Amino acid sequence: MDPLLRLLEENALATHETLAAQLATTPADIKKRIAQLEHDRVILAYKAIVDDERAKRTGVKAVIEVRITPEREGGFDRVAHRIAQYREVHSCFLMSGGFDLLVFIEGDTLQEVAGFVSEKLSTLPGVLSTATHFNLKTYKIQGVLREGVVNEERLKVSP
Amino acid sequence: MHLPLSTVPSSNDYVADHVREIPRSGIRDFFEIVQSMQGVISLGIGEPDFVTPWHIREAAIYALERGKTGYTSNLGLLRLREAIAEYVSANYRLTYDPATEVLVTVGVSEALDLALRAVLNPGDEVLYHEPCYVSYSPSIALAHGRAVAIGTREEDEFKLRPAALKAAITPKSKVLLMNFPCNPTGGVMTAAELEEIAAICREHNLLVITDEIYSELSYAEAHTSIASLPGMRERTIFLHGFSKAFAMTGFRIGYACAPAPLIDAMMRIHQYGILCAPIVSQEAALEALRHGRADMLDMREQYRLRRNFLVHSFRAMGLPCFEPRGAFYLFPSIKSTGKSSRDFAFGLLKAQQVAVVPGTAFGPSGEGHVRCSYATGMDQLQIAVERIGEFVGKS
């Protein structure tokens, strides 16, 4: 895997100068490579990973298992694309196993999420069934532990 | 001690001469000052900043759940010794019998102490390269040996030069103690360079004690152990452990591999002094060998990227430095500032609250250098580099 991508996945705010020093190249080269990755849509976006609880956000998050009917041409893709377009849908994956799509959604209130499922998602042609699971608590998000792992007692100087 | 009855002896009089003569650790004074200060960014830490990978910690918890709280064999759990023998065979091309040629110890520190005590008669000389890990000279003295330092130089990439080794050999020379990749210099030795050293050891019948604790953290070519060279296995005690590669310093697990008579001699000291390494830590070490490779490679890559960043940053601020080939230390030269290692380190700490270790803590040949550990996150390294830059700019 491209080591530059890996570094950006760890910290997208790293400067070109720092990245260049780490990868033993020039800032100009880093700039060019990032531009190419963005152009090729290898890098889709840069976002902050936010702890909702500390940010005092009261929104609702849910995961929905969706069973759909594959279509003769295109299989699951067309229905999946239709579902993924909704503003409420945060992520959408085709899965193996007992259901087809796993849809992550976010809304301001329980009613909003419930409304989305019953009025929009369930009524889409091709959607056979849904099972909604609400998030209760976050422990780890996108590879980051909420509480971190800090060793306060680490010695400041050791041989 | 024969004192007149009327004299009340000071407690210090009870301390053995050879212990009293051991100088106070240079790193210790520095540590106490740093520990008392707030807001210090420390590049003075000789242990991984990573917490032990979770699956290894979990294995330790599981061991406790199963009631693994007793002693083990003096040599260590046989399952662990078997896994060590396999690991050492696969990674170092060294074959040892887990039943008689592997000893699990409380860190490499204990293994080194055992090895020295097992082989030294009073007055035997132990040759070692310097700058080096802080314990070598005192450990030799505590085993009643005579420590003979051989200076290594930046212009030689801190390698042990065959000519320098030859020049240091006397009829009393018995042991060559080596540590590559090297703490604090980051120097390594290639297979061809080790062969030259091995030839001298064979010619002069030296025993080699090789501390290869940083061997997984080699960034250039694949690591070679001197024990794997022709005619060296029978005259080498190979020391290794889990602290650095698997970020397990607090578990305190090291090991020694050597021909059975040497391991047996070490075990005789170990069984009375220590009995055995803690069983929970041994179980964790076993998990590290079985499933820890991906974590180890991941940490090594992060160290490598940080090394690149630090080398670039120090050179950019006008402090020349050898690009370390292994371990996680940078050993830049600070001679251009006109300061001694100690003045530089104390000055930097006072002016910019950045801790680096004076090179002289690793022996007199470390003068003109400081040790900067990159076992610290990139965010901290970046701030440290900015502050050091300011300090150097004003010097």
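qc> The interface with chain B takes residues 3, 7, 11, 14, 18, 20-24, 149, 151, 154-159 of chain A (CB under 8 Å).
qc> done
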